[in-house]
Specification:
Number of helices: 1
Mean pLDDT: 84
Number of domains: 2
Largest sheet: 5 strands, mixed
Helix content: under 10%
Low-confidence stretches: none
Strand order of the largest sheet: 5-6-7-8-9
Bound molecules: zinc ion
C-alpha cells in the first residue's frame, strides 16, 4: 500500500484547511517536516510525528481495527473501531482519569480526538 504524501491541514496563509503535500523531513531537526500548501504553495513547517500519525490515520482499515469496548486494554498506536460512531481511530496516548480509571486518547477519522475508558472493571 502506498502512503499518501498529501494530507488535510491548516494553512496560515490561506487561513483555512487545505490539501498539503509533505515535502520531507529536515535532516537537522528530524521532528519537523516541510509541508507545501497545494493552493497557495507556501511552505509550512509541521511536526513530522503528527504528520505521520495523520498519514497512518488515512490508511486505517476498520476491518483490521480492534472493536472498542471499555473492558479491553489498548496499545499506543493500535487501530480501533468504534461501532456506535462507525469510525476508526488510532490510540495516541494513555491517561488516568480523575476518578482513577484508565483511559486512552484516540484520534478518530471523523469524530476527531476523543478520550475513551479502557480496562473497565
Ligand atoms: Zn495555503
Amino acid at each position: 500500500m502506498s502512503r499518501s504524501k498529501f494530507s488535510q491541514r491548516f494553512c496560515g496563509y490561506c487561513n483555512k484547511t487545505t490539501r498539503m503535500e509533505l515535502m520531507g523531513e529536515m535532516t537537522t531537526t528530524p521532528d519537523k517536516a516541510w509541508c507545501r500548501c497545494t493552493r497557495c504553495h507556501h511552505m509550512t513547517l509541521i511536526n513530522a510525528r503528527e504528520a505521520l500519525q495523520a498519514e497512518s490515520g488515512i490508511a486505517l482499515d476498520a476491518a483490521k481495527a480492534t472493536t472498542y469496548t471499555p473492558e479491553l486494554t489498548f496499545k499506543i498506536g493500535e487501530a480501533i473501531f468504534h461501532s456506535e460512531w462507525n469510525d476508526v481511530g488510532k490510540v495516541l496516548s494513555k491517561v488516568r482519569t480523575s476518578s482513577g480509571s484508565q483511559a486512552i486518547i484516540v484520534s478518530f477519522e471523523k469524530e476527531g480526538q476523543k478520550t475513551l475508558i479502557e480496562n473497565l472493571r
